[in-house]
Amino acid sequence: MKLPKYILIFLSVFLGACNPDFVEIDNATAISTANYPNTVDDLEQLLAGVYATQHAAGIFGRAIGPYSTYVLDHTCDLSWQGSPNWIQMGQNNTLPNDAFLRQIWPDLWRGVQRANTLLAGVARVGENASEAALAEIDLIRGQAFFLRAWYYFYLTAFWGETFIVDGAGGEKMGMPIVTETANSLSETQVSRATVKETWDFIIGDLVAATELLDGKSWSSLQDKHKADEWSAKGFLAKVYVFVQDWEAAKVLLNEVISQSNKALVPFDVYRTMFNGEHEFNSESLYELNLNVDITYPGADDRSMGSHIGTMISPTYVSPTTGTASASAWCNVFPHAKNITRFGFDLGHYFPPGTTVANVANVDPNYVVASKKARSEKTVDPRLWVACLQPYVDSMVVNGAKHPISHYLDINEIDMEAWSFRKYINLNGTELEINRSNGSNILWLRLADIYLLYAETLIHTGNNAEALEYINKVKRRAYGVAVDAPSPFDYNSLSDATMASDPALRNDPLKYERWAEFFGEFNWWFDVCRWKMGASEAAYYEKIRGGTIQWADDSDYAQPIPIDELNANPDMIQNPGY
């Protein structure tokens, strides 16, 4: 429950981007920067606009995931072959004129601009506020710092020249640091700070957020989407891990684990919490609040939902032809190598020699073996949380169940062509909800904190406790008690995992992060900070559009969009582009 997003975005755009010199206001009662914001309620309206920008079309309204991280880290392969730039991104040949990055960049900066507009408003309203109002204003200011750091996190993770802040890495190019709302073009033409300066800026905002939100939790339904004490501390701890400040990370992660009262949800809750169920549960530290919007489809900035489900939508067996039918756009599907990485090695649903992807050609022994693997957990159960299996799983279309098919337009009959399951509508198709999926994005949750803590413990010399936190996450996945030893436990930090590739085969920490968060927009940033680009390219080898290419470490940073280079003479392109 929240104010209509399109109203909030209009207000934010008007107030954040317009200057009285640029417009003529004839209506004396109209809102203007001369008298707005003027109250705490005004600040709350602006704050809602800053939150809403997180699911603008260029961010989680559509572009984060299918247009970026899913493609860069090969979470997906491409069914749709009509967009050359999409194929180039999947081959690691992203160009400065890439149409998708040109959506992400401006929307992230729009979020920064709106956060800065809000912070300016906070300063203005706070000048004459009562003591009671100042307490409310401090909570708004804390959220503004959190949100500005959130937008900068993505800007830096996509376009910073490196993640590393120590030594020479810290002197490489980060992001321009902008703390005030621009009122002219020249004020937007800011040069790039260093990587260290950028991460320090993010950390500074999050430290401020943790102080201002200390002790705060939100209980009312209309406020639950807001960042609170544990959102800020969890996010700050994650940033400390990213910049390898292990001691600071260790202290803060331990505090979140021991004092937040958060707990891993049972597996039955976990398996559906990415599909609009169990929102704001005991595991969630911060999630993006989305709602099905029958008026505006997800990719429209006025929408309260997301278009991601439309792009990753499953394909199902047509009841008339027995072949694949689209449930929505059906642009991307899980890369076949991901199915193997979860430990699935049961052959193929079509016998050798099959030439037509038809339900009549499915091997019945395959279906039996697959169901047995699920019940006996000989394959990582998270495979079926993340993906829908052809001819074993089903989906609902106009109230009727239909089997999942070999993915639409995949002519390679011998390829594993499954469908995505996270962040889709399990009760129908995306078209039935106006291509505006209302599943909340679980952006930071306790499983992430556990695995970040395990990583921190490894780097600070406590391998035994690190292994225990890795096993806690794995135990939940296998449906057993989280805090007690189980037959599914890893026995060492180099124990065998379900993966067979050299990168993850004997690395439980990396495998658990990959498997636990598959389809949750995280893996590309882990690949970058762990410098796994070359080994990941070697494992995935190719996408349907061609061979994956990896040159050197300059490939981790994406190209600054050409629009920004043309508009800002002080902007320097990343090396290699």
UniProtKB/TrEMBL annotation:
Its main location: membrane. The keyword Repeat does not apply. Keywords: Cell outer membrane, Membrane, Signal. Residues 414-577 form the RagB/SusD domain. Gene3D superfamilies: 1.25.40.390. PROSITE patterns: PROKAR_LIPOPROTEIN (PS51257). One of its GO terms (cellular component) is cell outer membrane. It is found in: Cell outer membrane. SUPFAM superfamilies: TPR-like (SSF48452). It holds the Pfam family SusD-like_3. Residues 40-240 form the SusD-like N-terminal domain. InterPro entries: SusD-like_N, SusD_RagB_dom, TPR-like_helical_dom_sf. Belongs to the SusD family. This is Starch-binding associating with outer membrane. It comes from Parapedobacter pyrenivorans.
